């Protein structure tokens, strides 16, 4: 197995996305697009080992090719999957002088999964006739991906090999060249690459070999024919589906609220189409239709938001699923079949042949196909019209806003210093309210989607204060930083004291071994008795791999020695960190994230008397990576030292857990005032310096040192004593909110606008909603 399995000399470190270890659903789907199924991979591995064992018994005898056992088949399948998902396009080292590569593909999910194994068998038989040994890790494959686009993971890997590692590749086998491309332009590009790099493309079934000038012409003509065939087939399918819609056929699975039943004749036998398939009729599913009417009523009559409707449906498991969200509710409310009119051809898809991206374009309503289906009506015309008017207002309000271009997490949320992720579903927490009082929530949890348990939201201000207070308490202190610098210097001394060695003899010996390995690999394709050669090759390979590891270690330790870190530098470093946290958030957030990594949020018990719940935050600090980022940002002279330690994998990690709750200002201020007092300032001088009441400063210092809560009834947090209490805002607007809500059925946003216009009281829609909830409780 050594030499022919996917064991490369250099391992690629796993990459995470911008949220740390978490990937969104679309990112996961994109990552696995084109990956053959587990059964298909096992069939490929079984076919490979069985065919190669039969035709290359000398490799089996020498131990370079394993037997076709269940264990080895599973290992080969797992190696292929790992290589595919890693996205690594480097060419695996070949045991032979020049490698023979293979490309496999089938078009869609309706194709036979064993097609890949069948293609591989045909190719291996042809390669064995040519006395070309195909190694397992030189096989590329794409499953259920069309050849009309070049954006295929397996195909892109093959192109990268041909462009960047042409000297190591002799030829590429394909079952037939249409598996590579069904696009004439892309086929000609591939031909040019193969010609420029002197790589032969061989189609096993069609007998095309691009090294032959006449075959290149045949390949170009064939590609043109395939492209025209695909275009013609698309037009035929489109024409056939349009005709079937006009004839009353079903083109799509039934929407929520409907079901398909099999039509039967007078004898109770299923009616069959001309293709021999049972004829299905769409009817109203009365159980689901009740919920369809309820959704329209919630939206129109009760003025529920789409998010609230989705949350209610998910909590009840309506439709046997918990994946309802605002987008799906919008689609349901726009579905004209509920009023007895079925539409088809409302959109058209345009595919970019270079990127493979599909763009959906909305067609004018005049170009839609429509048919009356009164037996499928679920809602009345009045309910439908009121729904569409309300949706139109929502769209108008949405499009009126200024849309900012999408970007990364920092550009999307430029005001967020802490950007956590959900500890249940891994989704990024987004702004639930983006006004003055920002709050974060998990969209899956708010809609009770995917059984996510993070259903509440939390103020951005509270989250930032709680996490920063924890960091200031445990990490961002002079004591911790001095200890970190001391341990870093100790590790640095150990690394630098490791003896260096002269690398010249090692390099010369490695060069000699590589030449010997190349000669033996050449003999493998010429000699009949390969046992002695393979034994010698295995010995040299093992020695060469060990020597390369030694050389890598030696070169690493012989680099320029970085200098030690002065522990006194902790004071400046701490000041710079404090200044950093006060700078532009988009600049500070990535550096802070290097320290905390992904901050995972989970939800605890409900707070008594409130709708909110306790949030728990957990993260693992990476001190070395943080110091690297901070040193680069501030251009410290010891930046090279931290980079040296980081590349050696040294760091101090610690898992930090905390309860996200309001951190009173006097806590952070008490620490600040206490430090100023330690420098010799009196409470009066501190009060004058920070612009606060002297009694407040004294109380904050006592609270910080003794862990007590000050008696704030005597004075407020500033310099002005408290006056008589004012009536609550909710009490001032309570009567008007109740009247407008009950009598006028006015939305909270409109009530807020009415209060501003008629009473000159400026409140948010959220304040109006809280007032209404308070009135409902009373």
Report a brief summary of the structure.
The protein has 28 helices and 17 strands. It is an alpha/beta fold. The protein is flat.
Can you walk me through this structure?
By secondary structure, the protein is an alpha/beta fold. Among the domains are: 30-233, Resolvase, N-terminal catalytic domain (Rossmann fold), CATH 3.40.50; 267-340 and 377-407, Hect, E3 ligase catalytic domain fold (Alpha-Beta Complex); 501-557; 729-777. It contains 28 helices and 17 strands. A four-stranded parallel sheet has the order 2-1-3-4, sandwiched between helices. Helix 5 links the parallel strand 1 (99-105) and strand 2. Helix 16 (478-496) crosses helix 19, helix 17 packs antiparallel against helix 18 (531-557) and helix 23 (665-678) packs across helix 25 (694-706). The longest helix has 34 residues, at 213-246. It is flat, with a radius of gyration of 35 Å. The protein starts with 24 loop residues before the first helix and ends with a helix. 28% of the residues are buried.
Low-confidence stretches: 1-22, 402-412, 716-726
Q: How much helix is in the residues?
A: 40-55%
CATH topology of the domain at 30-233: Rossmann fold
Q: For the residues shown, what is the average pLDDT?
A: 80
**Gyration radius, to the nearest Å?**
35 Å
The dominant shape is flat
Number of E-type strands: 17
Counting copies of identical and different chains, the oligomeric state is single chain
Question: In the CATH classification, which architecture of the domain at 30-233 applies?
Answer: 3-Layer(aba) Sandwich
Can you tell me the CATH superfamily of the domain at 30-233?
A: Resolvase, N-terminal catalytic domain
Q: What is the CA–CA distance across the termini?
A: 76 Å
> What is the top-level CATH class of the domain at 30-233?
Alpha Beta
Coarse structural class: alpha/beta
Strand order of the largest sheet: 2-1-3-4
**Main β sheet profile:** 4 strands, parallel
Pfam family, one: Recombinase
Organism: Polystyrenella longa
Biased composition (Low complexity): 1-19
GO molecular function, one term: DNA binding
């Amino acid at each position: 197995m050594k030499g022919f399995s996917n064991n490369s000399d250099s391992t690629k470190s796993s990459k995470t996305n911008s949220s740390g270890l978490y990937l969104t659903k679309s990112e996961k789907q994109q990552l696995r697009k084109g990956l053959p199924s587990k059964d298909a991979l096992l069939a490929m591995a079984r076919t490979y080992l069985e065919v190669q064992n039969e035709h290359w018994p000398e490799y089996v005898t020498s131990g370079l090719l394993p037997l076709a056992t269940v264990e080895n088949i599973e290992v080969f399948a797992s190696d292929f999957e790992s290589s595919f998902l890693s996205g690594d396009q480097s060419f695996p080292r070949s045991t032979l002088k020049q490698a023979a590569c293979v490309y496999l593909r089938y078009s869609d999910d309706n194709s036979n999964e064993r097609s890949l194994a069948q293609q591989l068998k045909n190719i291996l038989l042809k390669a064995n006739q040519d006395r070309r040994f195909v190694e397992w890790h030189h096989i590329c494959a794409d499953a259920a991906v069309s050849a009309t686009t070049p954006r295929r993971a397996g195909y892109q890997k093959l192109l990268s090999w041909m462009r960047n590692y042409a000297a190591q590749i002799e030829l590429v086998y394909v079952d037939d060249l249409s598996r590579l491309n069904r696009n004439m332009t892309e086929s000609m590009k591939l031909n040019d690459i193969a010609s420029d790099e002197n790589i032969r493309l061989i189609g096993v079934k069609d007998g095309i070999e691009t090294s032959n000038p006449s075959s290149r012409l045949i390949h170009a003509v064939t590609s043109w024919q395939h492209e025209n065939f695909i275009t013609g087939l698309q037009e035929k399918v489109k024409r056939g589906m349009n005709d079937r819609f006009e004839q009353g056929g079903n083109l799509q699975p039934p929407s929520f609220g409907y079901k398909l039943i099999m039509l039967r004749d007078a004898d109770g036998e299923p009616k069959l189409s001309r293709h021999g398939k049972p004829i299905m009729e769409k009817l109203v599913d009365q159980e689901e239709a009740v919920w369809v009417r309820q959704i329209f009523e919630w939206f129109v009559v009760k003025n529920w938001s789409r998010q609230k409707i989705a949350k209610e449906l998910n909590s009840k498991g309506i439709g046997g699923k918990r994946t309802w969200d605002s987008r799906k509710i919008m689609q349901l409310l726009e579905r004209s079949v509920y009023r007895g009119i079925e539409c088809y051809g409302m959109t058209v898809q345009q595919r970019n042949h270079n990127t493979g991206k599909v763009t959906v374009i909305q067609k004018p309503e005049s170009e839609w196909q429509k048919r009356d289906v009164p037996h499928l009506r679920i809602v009345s015309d009045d309910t439908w019209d009121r729904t569409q008017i309300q949706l139109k207002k929502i769209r108008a309000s949405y499009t009126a806003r200024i849309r900012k271009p999408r970007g990364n997490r920092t550009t999307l949320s430029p005001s967020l210093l802490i950007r956590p992720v959900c500890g249940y579903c891994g989704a990024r927490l987004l702004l639930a309210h983006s006004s003055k009082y920002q709050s974060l929530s998990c969209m899956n949890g708010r809609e009770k989607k995917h059984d996510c348990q993070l259903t509440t939201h939390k103020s951005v201000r509270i989250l930032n204060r709680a996490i920063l207070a924890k960091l200031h308490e445990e990490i961002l202190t002079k004591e911790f930083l001095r200890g970190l610098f001391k341990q870093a210097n100790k590790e640095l001394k150990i690394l630098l004291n490791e003896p260096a060695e002269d690398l010249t003899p090692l390099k010369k010996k490695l060069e000699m071994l590589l030449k010997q390995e190349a000669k033996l690999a050449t003999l493998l394709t010429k000699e009949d008795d390969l046992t002695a050669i393979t034994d010698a090759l295995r010995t040299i390979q093992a020695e060469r791999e060990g020597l390369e590891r030694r050389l890598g270690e030696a070169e690493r330790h012989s680099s320029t020695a970085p200098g030690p870190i002065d522990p006194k530098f902790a004071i400046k470093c701490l000041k710079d960190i404090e200044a950093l946290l006060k700078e532009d958030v988009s600049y500070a957030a990535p550096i802070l994230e290097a320290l905390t990594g992904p901050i995972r949020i989970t939800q605890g018990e409900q707070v008594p008397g409130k709708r909110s719940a306790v949030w728990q935050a957990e993260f693992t600090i990476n001190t070395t990576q943080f110091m690297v980022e901070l040193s680069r940002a501030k251009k410290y002279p010891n930046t090279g030292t931290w980079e040296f330690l980081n590349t050696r994998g040294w760091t101090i990690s610690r898992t930090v857990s905390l309860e996200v709750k309001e951190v009173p200002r006097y806590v952070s201020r008490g620490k600040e005032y206490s430090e100023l007092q330690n420098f010799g300032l009196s409470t009066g001088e501190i009060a004058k310096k920070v612009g606060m009441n002297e009694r407040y400063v004294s109380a904050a210092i006592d609270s910080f040192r003794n862990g007590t809560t000050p008696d704030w009834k005597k004075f407020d947090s500033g310099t002005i004593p408290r006056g008589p209490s004012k009536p609550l805002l909710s009490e001032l607007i309570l009567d008007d909110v109740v009247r407008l809500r009950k009598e006028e059925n006015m939305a909270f946003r409109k009530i807020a606008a009415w209060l501003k216009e008629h009473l000159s009281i400026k409140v948010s829609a959220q304040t109006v909603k809280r007032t209404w909830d308070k009135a409902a409780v009373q």
